[in-house]
Amino acid sequence: MEPLESYVIMRNRYLFLKRVILTSIAIVFVIFIYKFWLPNKVKVDCFVYDPCGGCFSDNNPCKPCNVVLEMEKYLFNKVDELGLREAADIHVYNVMYDIQKDLLMGRVQPGLEFDYPVLFVNDTALFGWDQINERFDELLLQMVRARPNRSVKRDNSINVTYVHEKTEKPVAIYFKRQDCRSCKKTEEYFAQKGNFKGLCEVLIYNIENEENTRLFEEYRKEYGVNLETAGAPMIFIGDTFLEGYEEIETFLEVYIESGYGLKTCIIKANKDGN
After folding, report:
1. Is residue 154 part of a domain?
2. Are residues 183 and 206 in the same domain?
3. Structural domain of residue 61, as residue ranges?
4. Closest CA to 167 of 134, 194, 201
């Protein structure tokens, strides 16, 4: 065997072994993150084919990939619309890179023909835009509902009870998050309506504050809202509640003009029983 030929064989073996080792490390890392670091989040893994990431050197791009960036934007907008940003762990991979392609090939049936993008919600695969547009929202909501309960750390040294009162004037109770796209749209809607011409006061609570989180939980209990799946934006008015921007934009003004605000339950914290 010629020295050059022998060198080529050895180099190919080395590159193959390196690829196997790196792929194994990546798979183990993903499994570790999924099992131990983010046990209460739904894994959303998307695989796209994007040859336009710029020039390549040793399988590394010189700049971010356009399709990857667009897909990330699409997915984050989606989970924001559903109010599930904190419930989803999103990653987008480009199968133009060997290691990321190997991650995909390890999760699909050998020989299966499919369209890109490929989207996994936990272990359920959606192939191509038709399946993604048709099933992603429903599938993500199902996976979120099936999550194990997340134990929330609280300061239990504070003894909080709640007083339920009837309102003396029309009022609606609005719970929001700072990083929530639907919440921002809801507040823009409030501004467009000019605070509903003074017909109803909207009390605003940011649930990133622990006291407001406790209050939000108490309101959901009072109104019979699912504690595991329901989130901001949410409005309590009269004897009902509205969840998400679409419901709020569609029904809130009608409820306010119909006098629902006079029947809203007012819940106040009563610390240490005082």
Report:
1. no
2. yes
3. 38-145
4. 201
d(CA 236, CA 242) in angstroms, rounded, equals 7
Segment 11-29, tens digit of pLDDT: 667 666 777 677 667 666 6
- Give me Rg for the CA atoms of the chain: 25
Q: State pTM to two decimals.
A: 0.45
User: For residue range 120-166, what is the model confidence (pLDDT) as tens digits?
Assistant: 998 899 999 999 998 898 888 877 765 554 433 444 444 566 777 77
Out of 145, 168, 183, pick the residue that ends a domain.
145
189 and 133 belong to one structural domain: no
